[in-house]
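If you are new to this repository, start here. Below is one unmodified record pulled from the training split, so you can see the exact layout before writing a loader.
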Amino acid sequence: MPAPSAIRKTSACAALLAVLLAACTTPSKSPPAAAEAEARTQAMQAARAAAERSRAREAATRHPAPPFAPAPVASLAHAPMPMPMPQRPLPRPAENTEHYDTREDNPVRRTREAPVSTFSIDVDTGSYANVRRMLRDGYRPPADAVRVEEMLNYFDYGHPAPASREVPFKVTTELAPAPWNPRRQLLMVGIKGYDVDKRELPPANLVLLVDTSGSMDYPDRLPLLKRAFAQLVPQLRAQDRVSIVAYAGTAGLVLPPTPGDRHGEILAALEGLRAYGSTNGDEGLRMAYAMARQAYIEGGVNRILLATDGDFNAGITDRGALLTMVADQRRAGIALSTLGFGMGNYNDAMAERLADAGDGQHAYIDTLEEARRVLVQQMQATLLTIARDVKVQVEFNPAVVAEYRLVGYENRLLREEDFANDRVDAGDIGAGHEVTALYELTLVGSGAERLRSGPGRGRRLRRTGPPAPALQAARAGREPAAR
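And here is the target side for that same chain:
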């Protein structure tokens, strides 16, 4: 049977062809006026009839989107729900309302006045995938969407792993000429966490918190989201527990805590999700945390995976209140990671901040391949934390380094005294995770200094001078410390 679109095209072509044939038929030498009018009338009636038949066929194949109604859990054990008919997509927002936190490049620092640099690690990769999506779609990303540390940390550089689990990570450094100005140097600081085989992961209590609001009714949102989580399901084991909570105008429990090896039930619950209504993320989070507490596994992985376009517009929408709730639950042992979807109204700022407050990772899913990378290939790093509150502190030798600038990590900077303060929160490292940071250095005697005089509070980046022959690598101060 031809597809509905093919039926509509065929009917329209038939109607058009009937009109054209009626208009192009060779007339008799002296046709009566009444006969000519009758012919035109018949042709128009045939065209209208064909159009009506086309509309009737289209209406017969169109299924209205039903409101969200969780399927009874008992029925899920027998057979998955059938695939729904594709819905007509809602109009995309006429105006791009994507939201990103504003940030500025880190300033250049004079080493003799500020020799110590301290920052929290960041294992997020959402910026890279989001920027990739923009470039693929043919438009220039806004500056605030480009977080350099997330672009760096998207890739695996093969940093050496620790020799044993007694020390959870290993620090590596390298020095090389800066590609944009060979008179300056780039110091790379790499951290590698110890890896864990998937079979050795502790039992996991996962809550899949799914945004099913009307803004998710696009192919690159809820349909992609369901296929993304479907990639995770086969990795789950009998000792794992999975819950599914969906939220739109209100929140609903789709799947109560269920053994991870009941793959059919989990997949069927995912497939039953529909998009409609407003976005009450606050209520969804509260229900997700309730499910996480109900199925809490002592000594296991207890984590919420929030999948959303970040557009919270109902319930508590104040970012500060949401972040406080997430931070309180983190201290109670329940972590939160975020997976971003969609474009046009994507709230990157909200998704990133929630993940930071929940000691989780923020990733952006633009393709099924990216979903496999985050949820399957990097499953251990996404789910299992091996070191909490990891901070990096680098002290430069003023006799060797005249100036330095940390590339990226603008919203991860810490004060020197925060390094040893356990009350100051920092990022976590997952199993097998790599973290990479770059410092741009100006060595003493290079002639490439930018801070000629004045107070040493720093100055924003300004590229000056023609390229010069590359300098040989030089020792750039003391070994970085990490805790």
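Two things worth knowing about this chain: The chain is about 30% helix and 20% strand. The longest strand covers residues 181-193.
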